[in-house]
Design a protein that fits this description.
The complex is a heterodimer of chains A (694) and B (147).
Chain A (H helix, E strand, L loop, with lengths): L2 H32 L2 H30 L6 H6 L6 H6 L5 H23 L7 H20 L4 H4 L40 H16 L1 H13 L5 H5 L1 H26 L9 H26 L3 H24 L14 H21 L16 H33 L3 E2 L2 H21 L10 H24 L5 H32 L3 H11 L1 H25 L2 E7 L4 E4 L2 E12 L4 E11 L2 E6 L2 E5 L8 E5 L1 E4 L3 E11 L4 E10 L1 H19 L3 H17 L2
Antiparallel strand pairs in A: 2-11, 3-4, 4-5, 5-6, 5-7, 7-8, 9-10, 10-11
Helix pairs in contact in A: 1-2, 1-6, 2-5, 5-6, 5-8, 6-9, 8-11, 8-13, 9-13, 11-12, 11-21, 12-13, 12-15, 13-14, 15-16, 16-18, 17-18, 18-19, 18-20, 19-20, 20-21
Chain B lengths: L18 H27 L1 E4 L1 H6 L1 H4 L3 E16 L4 E8 L2 E8 L11 E8 L5 E9 L11
Parallel strand pairs in B: 1-2, 4-6
Antiparallel strand pairs in B: 2-3, 2-5, 3-4, 5-6
The chains are: A alpha+beta (694), B alpha/beta (147).
Chain lengths: 694, 147
């Protein structure tokens, strides 16, 4: 087949998917209202067809990307002959049209999986779940197949039936050119980094994943089945989506740290904020559902949190894709933004309408007993997380809103976010430590004193030790004191649990610890996540408070010194690599006079057939120890004089940020493993609900 | 905290229905406090975001104040001294020109920049001392294919 025919086929697959997803949404609703099970089956099958067709379209685009079908505009823009295969594949999510397809495809696959898991078990909820998922998939498909550019022609939808006619559609990944370019432009070299291969995938998996709990929440509202069944049913979907959002944050930070060369990993850039906000509200949700499961409370709040998380995920996609806010990520200004806002607005309005309509079905089964209780500490944690999401949202989008209203352009940067979120996150950390010490319902004073004694004493000792070691700044002492406090409380939780097993079953300590975790995956998985968070905090505090840097212009043989490191410049090397020219500076590193190895920071030049597209990238070199990172950037060089200008940074404790995230990921996996205890709880909840609705 | 059936405790007479308000008020106070701090910090940290015309109009009042500027880059004016890591360039919009000095690592995309977003202070000498610069390319991560 010719390239154009393949593009037509891809477009046709998307267009048919659109029809099938709309059919699924409508038919499922009809089936539920009229109680027609054969139509429900047909709606379910339509979702399977959508999953198959979007897979076909994705397959065609990947084929085109790796076989250089430059007639397809997207391929010409995102890939080139010289570009390594890995990055030609990652071009699938490297540009706007491809990411739209990727989103729709992931959601279609997720929807098919959810249906296979649930269509027997949750017959009441599933029709409405299909409707919610079908509409969301249809929205993304419509952006690719029929949506016009609102800035040029307003909100109209066109019905072009082949790729050539579809050429005017900005979201269509299968737009063809009227000529065949000899080579493509290729992905921006800054994105040619293994982190960039994985970061967007995890980010999208997280964003897309939250559509599933949202669809169930909507279905629960529709059917008035508002007990904890929908929450328990989607528990693992929520956890896995949260896991992917966390991975998205981790890979994003690592990419910034390794690739941007300024020595940091987080700059409160709008797109970074966009990935943080749904993570914050989802974290709140993961905690607050426990209150509903245990005590039948916070029902409205949980629905609102799911809604916020879904909305912030869409907003994240929108901010990343629209270029509406200035950012290092601005992926070219897109004209699809208004469609996102319209869809987001309509979804939120209908959800809120349903929520108010169903308020009568959302009565709390219990009331909060005491201000000093596990419930209160969860509530406080929720308020803080939502508060942090709000502050971040405000700083991210208020400048835009303000400009629209007052026509004055103002903006805020990192100082604002640090000033507001710093104390908020500090309070949150303390709470992570306090929460397990407070009993459910109502804690007694004696209890509190007994539980707080040991962690508090340990914290005091730790602060004195840190002080003796030379930590004199209040913020350092505060952060590390808080970290100690939390780690001790978690260690005590593990100790008590294991001790009980050692006594009761005469297990040895190792076996007891393993059984403890495996018998209470959710609870101890959660504690492991907390340990990861605290280690990450230690890394963040160290690298933000105690960074030091210097720069120097060196001739071969000269040295630069920073703290106890001495770096000797051994010379420049310039040579060609696969698709770029490398300029490397060889440095021998001495720590307290001992040779500890070499570091080779680089500058790379990526030529392109389009002179505007050729580009420099800076590749840092880093030496990591548990105590600190020695981070070196080749900031400039002179080939004739053989000199190099180096920027040298010492980032204390950064590695703990990465280790902390790895532990967080491990803990989340533990919590998300199939758990007989949770299965039984779900079965009980289902039986109870069936009884209530009989 | 076992997740095995903690029974839903029936509401007993001792639990006052008024307890709810305690929590509602407490929660609103906390959210209110966070909102207040957010809005206040925004105002104290907000800086003007101007183009060259706006900067020129308010030049006198802006000396030594933090501002962010977005203006077209005169590519021919870029000078980089790699010994001192000092980058000098001129932002130009029609007749207006603003010399900018920046110390640090030059963004990799500098020579492709269409315009520059610079944050820093305008000195009394008319030179803008930038603390951060963000280079805006014709389109940053995407571009039109060349014929």
């Amino acid at each position: 087949m010719t390239d154009v025919a393949m593009a037509d086929l891809g477009y046709a697959a998307l267009f048919l998917s659109l029809i099938f997803s709309l059919y699924a949404a409508g038919a499922a609703l009809y089936a539920a209202r009229r109680n027609r099970s054969e139509i429900f089956v047909s709606a379910r099958n339509a979702i399977f067809v959508v999953a198959a067709l979007t897979s076909l379209a994705t397959g065609i685009l990947v084929w085109a990307l790796v076989t250089h079908q430059f007639r397809i505009e997207y391929v010409a823009r995102q890939t080139s002959r010289a570009q390594p295969l890995l990055y030609n594949i990652s071009a699938l999510w490297g540009g706007q049209e491809g990411s739209l397809l990727f989103w729709a495809w992931l959601l279609a696959i997720f929807s098919a999986i959810v249906l296979i898991q649930n269509y027997r078990k949750n017959q009441e909820l599933m029709p409405y779940v299909i409707t919610g998922l079908g509409v969301t998939i249809a929205f993304f498909l419509a952006l690719m197949t029929i949506a016009s550019n609102p800035e040029e022609s307003g909100f109209i939808i066109a019905l072009p039936l082949n790729a050539t006619l579809a050429a005017s559609l900005v979201g269509n990944p299968f737009r063809v050119l009227d000529f065949v370019p000899r080579d493509g432009n290729g992905l921006n070299p800054l994105l040619q980094n293994p982190g960039m291969f994985i970061h967007p995938v995890t980010q999208y998996l997280g964003y897309v994943g939250f559509t599933i709990p949202f669809a169930f929440a909507m279905a629960a509202l529709f059917t008035r089945r508002l007990s904890d069944v929908w929450i328990r049913t989607t528990r693992r979907w929520t956890l896995v989506s949260w896991l992917f959002l966390s991975l998205g944050l981790l890979f994003g930070m690592q990419w910034a740290y390794m690739e941007l060369g300024w020595g940091g990993y987080w700059g409160w850039d709008p797109v970074e904020n966009a990935s943080l906000m749904p993570w914050l509200t989802a974290t709140a949700y993961l905690h607050s559902v426990m209150i509903q499961e245990k005590r039948g409370m916070l029902k409205v709040w949980n629905l609102v949190l799911v809604m916020l998380t879904f909305a912030l995920s869409l907003l994240g996609t929108f901010i990343t894709r629209s270029g509406v806010i200035e950012s290092v990520h601005a992926f070219g200004v897109s004209s699809l933004g208004p469609w996102f806002l319209v869809f987001l607005g309509l979804t939120l309005l209908s959800f809120l309408y349903l929520l108010f309509e169903r308020m009568g079905d959302l009565k709390e089964e219990n009331e909060l007993d005491s201000l000093v209780s596990r419930e209160s500490s969860f509530l406080l944690n929720n308020l803080i997380l939502v508060g942090a999401a709000f502050a971040t949202l405000w700083g991210t989008i208020f400048p835009m809103v303000n400009e629209a209203i007052t026509n004055k352009k103002v903006t805020v940067g990192a100082p604002f976010f640090n000033q507001v979120n710093g104390p908020i996150f500090f309070a949150l950390i303390i709470l992570v430590g306090i929460c397990p010490l407070i009993g459910w319902r109502r804690a007694t004073i004696e209890n509190l004193i007994r539980n707080f004694m040991r962690p508090f004493a340990a914290t005091l000792v730790a602060v004195i030790v840190f002080f003796a070691l030379g930590v004199r700044e209040w913020y350092g002492l505060l952060s590390y004191g808080a970290a100690t406090f939390v780690l001790v409380t978690i260690a005590l939780e593990f100790y008590r649990g294991a001790l009980a097993r050692v006594r009761q079953y005469s297990e040895n300590w190792g076996i007891a610890a393993i059984n403890l975790i495996s018998d209470n995956r959710r609870r101890y998985g959660g504690y492991i996540v907390h340990v990861g968070v605290i280690l990450a905090v230690i890394g963040i505090a160290g690298s933000s408070f105690y960074q030091s840097e210097t720069q120097a212009n060196l001739k071969p043989g000269e040295t630069v010194q920073l703290k106890n490191y001495t770096l000797r410049f051994d010379g420049l090397q310039i040579y060609p690599r696969e698709n770029h020219q490398a300029i490397t500076a060889r440095l021998t590193v001495f720590e307290n006079g001992t040779n500890v190895g070499i570091l080779v920071p680089e500058k790379n030049y990526y030529p392109s057939n389009n002179p505007d597209m050729s580009q420099w990238t800076t590749e840092i070199a880093v030496r990591t120890t548990p105590l600190e990172d020695l981070y070196v950037t080749l900031a400039g060089f002179d080939e004739k004089a053989q000199t190099a200008t180096l920027k040298v940074i010492i980032n204390p404790l950064v590695v703990w940020l990465w280790i902390g995230f790895a532990i967080l990921v491990g803990g989340t996996v533990v919590a998300a493993l199939p758990d007989p205890r949770e299965e039984r709880a779900l079965a009980r909840a289902r039986a109870k609900e069936a009884l209530a609705h009989a | 905290m076992s997740s095995i059936a903690v029974p839903n405790v029936e509401r007993t007479a001792s639990v006052k229905t008024g307890g709810k308000w305690k929590f509602l008020i407490g929660g609103l106070l906390i959210l209110g406090a966070i909102a207040y701090v957010t809005v206040m910090s925004f105002q104290s940290n907000a800086i003007y975001y101007l183009n060259l015309k706006e900067l020129n109009a308010q030049r006198a009042s802006l000396v030594n104040q933090a501002v962010r500027i977005n203006a077209p880059l005169d590519k021919s004016s870029i000078q980089f001294d790699d010994k001192s890591l000092t980058l000098k360039f001129i932002l130009r919009d029609g007749d207006l020109a603003l010399p900018v000095v920046y110390k640090g690592v030059v963004p990799d995309t500098m020579d492709k920049g269409d315009s520059v977003v610079a944050e820093g202070k305008l000195g009394a000498d008319g030179i803008f001392q930038a603390s951060t610069i963000l280079v805006k390319c014709p389109s940053k991560y995407e571009s039109e294919p060349a014929r």
